[in-house]
Sequence to fold (140 residues):
Amino acid sequence: MMAFGLLCIIAVVAVVQAQIPCDDAYGQFCPEAVGWKVGDCLDEHKAELPQLCLDFINLTETCKSDIMKHCADKAYTGELISCLTEWTKPEDLSEECKEKLPKKETKKERGQTKEQRANANRRRRIRNQAAREARDQAGL
Fold:
């Protein structure tokens, strides 16, 4: 049972570990590089990199001053985009960097119909009601 619990923890950690579009190339060409050295190393292999990786390198280079200021230890890590888009205020980023960052989709852009939103809201209310009842029964 304890081994199963440990296996579950490892699986969760593996899933939670965010990846960058350059992970395969990073592992192949630069396994020992860290931080900005990853970019330097990948730069030497540009002809062999997929477009998503090249786009990520371009974003990282465009946002370099912002990354150094707000996300210094996140360069070429899976947390970089989260740092720039969620943990850093948009007004603290340069215009060039903001233009390169992925845009957040609104509910309309995701294509949710009124019926889908209504169903989601209904399911949310049911979950919240069940949680309240469970807390009441537990005496919390």
User: Anything to note?
Assistant: The chain has two domains: 18-100, 106-140. Residues 1-17 have pLDDT under 50 and may be disordered.
